[in-house]
């Protein structure tokens, strides 16, 4: 019986050691927290190679110089801006239990986003520019 207990204990110790070693190879400490703090140079290097996120400027073009206007609906929110009479959707985010079904981000005289609920009717926002400001219809 002692042999079985000793064999079980040895197996448990070996399995624990192997698990810790694998976590070390994967770069994840046992506690889950990283101990590496970036230097100022590493931060600058990372920022210089960063790419804009999708939706930041939906068309990949530079963002307009005017700040965007937040437009809210039951289906979600949109940030839009105007450049003359052309509207651009800069970002869009569905509300909880909604998803984005389609987007026409502009720049154009009219831009739109359709939010689709899990159940119920879609919410479509159509946005134009009036007096240099985005307006939802």
Q: How do the strands and helices of this protein lay out in sequence?
A:
Blueprint: H1 2-26, H2 40-49, E1 69-72, E2 76-83, E3 86-94, E4 98-104, E5 111-117, E6 123-130, E7 133-136
Keywords:
137 residues; alpha+beta; 2 domains; four-stranded antiparallel sheet; three-stranded antiparallel sheet; 2 helices; 34% strand; elongated
Report on the structure:
Strand 2 (76-83) and strand 3 form a beta hairpin. The relative contact order is 0.12. This protein has 137 residues and is α+β, with helices and mostly antiparallel strands. The protein folds into two domains: 2-49, no CATH class; 69-136, no CATH class. The protein has a four-stranded antiparallel beta sheet with strand order 4-5-6-7, with no helix packed on it. It is elongated and about 85 Å long. It has two helices and seven strands; from the N terminus they run ααβββββββ. The chain is 26% helix and 34% strand.
């Amino acid at each position: 019986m002692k042999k079985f207990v000793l064999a079980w204990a040895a197996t448990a110790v070996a399995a624990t050691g192997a698990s810790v070693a694998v976590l070390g190879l994967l770069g994840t400490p046992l506690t889950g927290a990283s101990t590496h703090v970036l230097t100022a140079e590493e931060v600058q290097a990372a920022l210089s190679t960063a790419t804009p996120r999708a939706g930041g400027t939906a068309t990949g073009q530079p963002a307009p110089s005017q700040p965007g206007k937040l437009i809210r609906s039951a289906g979600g929110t949109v940030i839009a801006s105007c450049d003359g009479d052309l509207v651009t959707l800069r970002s869009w985010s569905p509300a909880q239990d909604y998803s984005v079904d389609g987007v026409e981000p502009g720049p154009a005289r009219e831009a739109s986003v359709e939010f689709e609920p899990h159940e119920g009717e879609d919410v479509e926002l159509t946005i134009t520019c009036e007096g240099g400001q985005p307006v939802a219809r």
